[in-house]
Write a structure and sequence with these properties.
The structure holds two protein chains of two kinds. Chain A is of the alpha/beta class. Chain A contains nine helices and ten strands. By secondary structure, chain B is mainly alpha-helical. In chain B, α3 packs antiparallel against α4, α3 packs parallel to α6 and α7 packs parallel to α11. The longest helix of chain B is centred in the first third of the chain and has 32 residues. The chains are: A alpha/beta, B mainly alpha.
């Protein structure tokens, strides 16, 4: 990993879905060790931005860098640095959840013995040990959420990207996830979080970016963005949803 | 070429275990159908046919053809179903988010297709040994053609899996192009037995050269020079492999 203080850097990112301009010249940086909230209404471009960073989406113009590496041309270097906890439950149906984590770690070049140990630790941390030999279909929604987190963390990434990680979670699970994210951030991991829960972003994050119709409409440190207002008020004001 | 050997081996292992875990759908059906082909066409009908091709019995003639047919189907079906299901469930993201290069991704998926093709065609060979003494005339050529054919059709399976939008589309190429061309390529008949106009068409059919390659490797009998068969197989394998890597690189139906 390059000794860059910028974990994620987007410059002039522009993305079209046929005629629809989903991202319009999006530029911002996320510092190493930051807890960054990326907010916006549905369809604003949050997931598209995440997909561009992780390499799940092509884009027509601009540049994405992860710790100084170009995400398009140096993707074999950027991908080990990122763990993605996506919105949907997209697990391999042929594997049980322990195998699923071990294979995922394998794709990242981690030896099976090390991967198995890490998988056990993560399953234990997220209270899934008893289910280690079942397939994901046998898990409840909350358990699947936790499994998504385990999968994102199995290769110990420097950056954790979470796309609405607590959507549909009960309070207990929400607190479990929050505690773990705060702990990871204290250990130096960079967290990039999208959420529709304003209190979640306000409580956890150090920096806030708001996107609307593919444009960044507000970005900065939490204090500077809020200016003694609540995040909800700022959000409604800059997105014009009042 | 391979910078992430553990990643490549993990993907290969997953692909191979996947088809073994559903062997009732992937391995046994072609073995059962081959046994029936051998019994009906080879033993029941073939023993009454005055075949007269270089001293080969009809049964010995069709075994290499059957092996090729199932080598092609096994390779194609493995990669097409695996990749399409991964797209369908979107767990393809597990692979796309990893640091595997596109070359390694294709190679890993290919390993499953090649392995399944080899397992099934070896099974057909072993079954045929119960019915007729059949040997291997040229081991090197057999390995060469088995590898080339399984690479070609594993790649074809991946291309189909990327192109298809539903399960129906997945089988279009197999049912309407590959199987008819394979059957017309001389699995059950020497092309000399066909009417002259169809013989000309058969020489344009690339499957003829693949079936002939396997048949020569096993029986030493061929109507087509081996150099031509080997060159066509090599060209097809290289083109299909690099075209598949290209599709992965541009993210054809893999990235939004």
């Amino acid at each position: 990993m390059r000794n860059s203080e910028i974990a994620i850097s987007l410059k002039g990112l522009t993305k079209y879905y046929q005629d629809l301009k989903a991202l319009d010249d999006v530029s911002f940086d996320v510092k190493r060790g930051d807890f960054f909230a990326f907010l916006g209404p549905n369809g604003a471009g949050k997931t598209t931005t995440i997909n561009a960073i992780t390499g799940l989406s092509n884009y027509q113009d601009g540049e994405v860098k992860v710790f100084g590496y170009n995400a398009k041309t140096e993707y074999t270097r950027t991908r080990p640095l990122i763990g993605l906890c996506a919105q949907e439950f997209n697990f391999d149906p042929f594997l049980n959840i322990h195998q699923l984590l071990v294979y995922q770690a394998g794709y990242f070049g981690i030896l099976p013995k090390v991967a198995a140990k890490r998988a056990d630790e993560l399953l234990n941390r997220f209270q899934l040990s008893e289910k280690r030999n079942v397939k994901h279909r046998a898990l409840s929604g909350g358990m699947k959420k936790r499994l998504l987190l385990c999968r994102a963390l199995i290769h110990e990434p420097e950056i954790l990207i979470l796309d609405e990680p607590t959507a549909g979670c009960d309070l207990e699970l929400k607190f479990l996830i929050w505690d773990y994210l705060v702990q990871l951030n204290k250990e130096g991991k960079t967290i990039f979080l999208t959420t529709h829960y304003m209190e979640e972003a306000e409580k956890l994050c150090k920096t806030i970016g708001i996107i609307n119709h593919g444009h960044i409409v507000r970005i900065g440190e939490k204090k500077a963005v809020l200016q003694d207002k609540s995040l909800q008020d700022v959000f409604l004001e800059v997105t014009g949803l009042e | 070429m391979i910078n992430n050997p553990i990643g490549f081996l993990s993907l290969s292992k997953r692909e191979i275990l996947r088809f073994f875990s559903v062997s009732s759908q992937t391995i046994f059906p072609p073995l059962i159908s081959s046994t029936l082909f051998i019994l009906i066409f080879g033993v029941a009908i073939g023993s009454r046919v005055d075949f007269g091709i270089s001293g080969l019995s009809y049964l010995a003639f069709i075994v290499p053809g059957l092996m090729t047919m199932h080598l092609i189907s096994g390779s194609y079906e493995n990669t097409s179903s695996s990749l399409f299901i991964a797209r369908w469930h979107n767990h393809i993201q597990e692979m796309l988010l990893s640091p595997l290069s596109y070359f390694e991704m294709v190679l890993g998926l290919l390993a499953g297709g090649v392995a399944r093709g080899i397992v099934v065609s070896t099974g057909v060979f072993l079954i045929s040994c119960f019915f007729t003494p059949i040997g291997i005339y040229h081991f090197f050529w057999l390995i060469y053609f088995v590898l080339m054919i399984s690479v070609i059709f594993s790649c074809a399976g991946m291309m189909a899996a990327l192109w298809a939008e539903d399960f129906g589309m997945l089988n279009v190429w197999h049912v309407y192009a590959i199987i008819p061309l394979v059957l017309l390529g001389g699995v059950f008949h020497p092309i000399e037995f066909l009417p002259e106009w169809l013989q000309t068409f058969s020489h344009l059919n690339p499957m003829l050269y693949l079936v002939s390659g396997i048949r020569y490797s096993m029986t030493g009998v061929t109507q087509i020079p081996m150099g031509i068969c080997a060159s066509i197989a090599f060209l097809m394998a290289i083109i299909s492999f690099y075209f598949t890597v290209y599709l992965f690189r541009i993210g054809y139906k893999l990235r939004s």
